[in-house]
């Protein structure tokens, strides 16, 4: 039997879904606008997400215990800092707020870029936190790095967690697990030739950079400077395919990108390379969500039976 029900908004390829199901969650509704992401989601979870969330009324969304959403960051028009729905209407965050107001799930977890707290001089974040609190939630937030959760990817993300019950006593996970790039990379013998850079590109990089570690991920920034580390910098949905090279020689495969985000190898790749790269770059790191969700579910369990000691 499912331990909790949840909805997956801005679902992408289901980073939240992967994490929630590992704790016995049951997805009762998902929404995603991108046709290819929907196809990948359906192939992997047997549930086709509904389309544009702005078009889905509250009464078509089932009741649920938890709401998950990695939402796009947009500026708000702040009218006198009122922190009401007037300020956020027309933004995708509004969709989260109106569903929280209508459904009042016990728990939510939201994900966004690290810069969210500084966006528009902090006004966006103040509005978000104020709106969530005005809806009756006890809200916690932190910037977490995938590198601390067993994934060899420097990916810093703002995570916001909210509890309807103010007795909830939550803290973000403190334990760090360092991931190894070796565990993510496929043996070169298994990697298709199409992923290897041309000799010209390899030599151009070698002329500029010598790596101190092996294996390593080489990263070329916008000004053409190259650095390499035993981990990847953040995967990005829209970035040029060439900015990351394994050992300065080849691109990451779609499977390696999914592994960098914590998706298991049982995740079926049904879209082409370009789409899968975009999907992996958009996803939330599964291990990060798992670690936070574990603490959040423990906090909920403690409310229900206060004598219960934290399992970890
Ligand atoms: C940052 S990604 C979230 C990825 C997801 N957390 C994952 O693990 O794959 C945001 C997603 O929101 C989707 N999106 C944008 N606007 C939307 C809308 N109006 N309704 C539903 N989905 C939307 C995008 O297509 C994109 O896949």
Total strands: the figure is 11
CATH classification, class level of the largest domain: Alpha Beta
Count every helix, treating DSSP H or I runs of 4 or more residues as helices: 9
Unreliable stretches covering 5 or more consecutive residues:
none
How does the overall form come out from the CA principal axes? globular
- At CATH level 2, the architecture of the largest domain is 3-Layer(aba) Sandwich
At the fourth level of CATH, the homologous superfamily of the largest domain is Vaccinia Virus protein VP39
How much is the radius of gyration in Å? 20 Å
Please report the distance between the alpha carbons of the first and last residues: 24 Å
* Share in helix: 25-40%
Which kinds of small molecule does this entry bind, naming each only once? Answer: S-adenosylmethionine
The number of domains is 2
Quote the beta fraction. 15-25%
Précis, in short:
By secondary structure, the protein is of the alpha/beta class.
Describe the structure.
With 312 residues, this protein is α/β, with parallel strands linked by helices. It contains 9 helices and 11 strands. The strands form 3 sheets. Strands 2-1-3-4-7-5 form a 6-stranded mixed sheet, with helices on both faces. The chain starts with a strand and ends in an 8-residue tail after the last helix. S-adenosylmethionine (SAM) binds next to helix 1. The site of S-adenosylmethionine (SAM) has 21 residues, from helix 1.
